[in-house]
Amino acid sequence: MPTRRLIESTRGGAAAVIRAAGRRTSWPGRSLGGLTIAALVVGAGGGVPGGAAPGGAAGTGAMRLVSHVQAGKTAGRACGWAVVQTPSPPADSLLNGVATRSSADAWAVGGSRSAEGDSLTALIEHWNGRSWNRVPSPHPGGVSWLTAVAVVSARNAWAVGAYANQVGGRNKLFTVHWNGTAWRQVPVPVADSGVLSAVTATSWSDVWAVGYAVHGVTQVAILHWNGRGWTRAPYRGPTGSSYLTGVAATSTGDAWAVGTTIRGTDAGPAFTVRWTGRKWQRVPIPDAGTIQLSAVTALSSRDAWAAGGSADRTVIEHWDGTNWASVPGPAPGVSRSLTSVAASSASNVWAVGSYHVVPNDLTFALHCT
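RESULT FIELD:
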């Protein structure tokens, strides 16, 4: 499955966070074939993950390339990017997701390998305004990792991912909750194997987590937390195999999720689904058959962004309250793809990803002002 390839294809190296002066952000992404699991949050009102903040006029300005950063170096003339070191376990480690509530309260999640290199343990780190510090995480079974995190308040945060009872075992959906004192595992009512890849929250009793579960074929998985427990939404996704990679919510009655279908061992057409307050329903998107979507963010019911890639270009889509429309965006190099998108207002939208210049993959950021 796609996320198993994440574990097997992750290259060694210390976890690192890249911070933009004046804006809280991060560089975690890891790409794996047709699926990319990553999360980026630019500080937004209410601490809603993905920069989701109710209100705001729709913005459709063109994206512009503002900087690119190589791991271990600082760059970013336009936004003041700087590397901020994070505590790394002795073996390989990676950070997949980040969320922030204030300049002195942010969480980053991922995984770290065992010294022998044959296992993975969930990794959680906290920013207190001065430094990143590792915080103990639940670690059920022999393998666990986290892909995304959402912050509601100083005493309420969620992280999602997967775990297995043993190395090579069946992946199971994994959610953990921060209660202000410790992270605790919360049971998920899905017996099928699978992975959760994204999470968003608008309040204590309104949290969405998405990914996939395998029951014969790979099917989208959408979970909702109502303040008492997780329930699985009845939406099953497109015919055949499919998975979700991003989710964003602006209120209890408005949320988006994006994903991609699977054709054999390759990624197929992308798709978007929307929560109307009563049900999830599919919404058409331009060029769906030639693109993949990795992430989504929303400012209001009339202003949302989705990002991803295709064979020859970065993909940026904008929702204006009626339709999705493609937005041109510059990109350097080749093999370009966006892995995350975030917004704090209609005039401040960021998308990040990577491109290839032989022999390396390099990061870059796009900014819409």
